Amino acid sequence: MNRRIRMICRHPEVVPGVGNTIRTNKKWGTAILGLLILIVTALGAAGCGGPSGYGKGVTNLSVASPSAIPAAYLIGAGDELEVLYYIDPDVDLPEYRVDSEDTLRVDFYYYPVMSKTLSVRPDGYITLPPIGDVKARNKKPTDLAREISELYTPILAKPVVTVEVIAFNTKIEELKRAIYNQERGMSRLAVVRPDGVISLPYIGDVKAAGLTTHQLQEQLHRRYAHILYNLSTTVVVLNARSNRIYVLGEVERPDFYELLGPTTLTQLLATAGGLTREAKTDQVIIVRRGKNGQPDAHIVYMNQIIGEASLLDPMLQQYDVIYVPRSAMARAALTADFLWRIVPLRFTVDYNLN
């Protein structure tokens, strides 16, 4: 059977031709012919090329994960945290300094009638007649006694004074009352606000988003050390709302997904509905945060993982971005479809079969 394909361009400037020859004006004909050659070349390359990544496995990605929420997990908005408080008896405390709401006993050795018990006011002062107000907060008891003695020197012959702290650490007791509950003991539940901040007793707002639990613990220790030297905290992530990964490209349901436990790449792709027909099945790209927060791209060769060594299936991490590229065949088909849309409607192709 003699097959003849004749392409006729019914364009005002086209010179009709016969057979398999396309004759147009120089500008339009050259453009169309070049684009058609490009499509054929792309289709040929897609059909003949083999999977370039087969047999190479996974590139620079770990294949194990110790827990559902790893130590490197970065706290984010919406996360539910529990802050556990405890008093560390092994901390070497500096010499005690008087604080607000402490109860002091001021004794005048030679003038016991002037001795009295005083409470440090919230502003940090005590009142001693006839001297008046004396700053007591943040002073060592021995230093405060020496200062009081000097103040009374013009009045008393031998103002030998001692200061004894008979009630202290009232802030610890207040903190216990603020955070204690029968179910969880000394702890505080906190949800990270959209601005990345949590609120805690005595220290107020604390930036939590973008930190690991260890980094947040260190920050809380520094903040509380100005108030209570031997107070320690432990931060636990109860509900990780920011343990997300993002899937783009040729999957059925591209979206972000929450990691509820250790998850491999193939498990995630299955959750996303699997690959589309246009997907390049041999290579998948994972973009991951590097040590300095810079993005690092890793190529995963899926053929070996699925066909030979599933143990190489990489574990995914928080904020990973998975991109499934389009195959060369699909790209060529998409290009052809695009070109067909931009070619004038009067451009037709006639098939004559004899």
Automatic annotation (TrEMBL):
Residues 245-294 form the Soluble ligand binding domain. The chain crosses the membrane at residues 28-46. It holds the Pfam family Poly_export. Keywords: Membrane, Signal, Transmembrane, Transmembrane helix. Residues 94-165, 186-237 form the Polysaccharide export protein N-terminal domain. The keyword Transmembrane applies. InterPro entries: Poly_export, Poly_export_N, Soluble_ligand-bd. One of its GO terms (molecular function) is polysaccharide transmembrane transporter activity. PANTHER family: POLYSACCHARIDE EXPORT PROTEIN GFCE-RELATED (PTHR33619:SF3). This is Uncharacterized protein. It comes from Desulfosarcina ovata subsp. ovata.
